[in-house]
UniProtKB/TrEMBL annotation:
Any single GO CC term annotated in Swiss-Prot or TrEMBL for this entry: cytoplasmic U snRNP body
Domain Sm: 23-82
Species lineage: Eukaryota, Metazoa, Ecdysozoa, Arthropoda, Hexapoda
Name of the molecule in the record: U7 snRNA-associated Sm-like protein LSm10
GO terms (BP aspect): mRNA 3'-end processing by stem-loop binding and cleavage
Record organism: Drosophila pseudoobscura pseudoobscura
InterPro entries assigned to the protein according to its UniProt record, in alphabetical order: LSM_dom_sf, Sm_dom_euk/arc, U7_snRNA_Sm-like
PANTHER family, alphabetized: U7 SNRNA-ASSOCIATED SM-LIKE PROTEIN LSM10 (PTHR21196:SF1)
GO molecular-function term, one example from the UniProt record: histone pre-mRNA DCP binding
Amino acid sequence: MQKFSSQEKYLIANTLNCWPVMLQGHSVLMDLRNETSVAGVVDIADGHMTCELSNAVLIDRNGGQHPFDNFMVRNRMIRQIHIPTDIDVAQELRQAMEHGVLRRNRVDGRNTKRTFKQKRAEIRHKETLEMIAQQRSEKEQNQSNIQ
């Protein structure tokens, strides 16, 4: 398990920086700010969204493909991360909340109260899960009405 600094833990728990960490081991496509894309398996990701990909393919502006064994993407270069379709977003967020990716673990028995920021982050994650579930149900209703 990777060790994160306190700033990285905060970013993972309170922003969308949690996604590269949760996508470790999955194949992803990232659009970069210089109009190129890179596809590969996320090996390492930190709280600042810096990612290391293995078996990567860089796709340039003209559509040319350039394979790399390892490829590092700096956080400021990422425009968009395409989440694979086989991943259930709501389930991944729930698992991350339960397993501690989005929750800071207390080492000692002292100070077991959650801070306001931790409570607010958890509330926001739950709201996001509810919104995803609502959008999914609306989409299913629209598809059933079409058929």
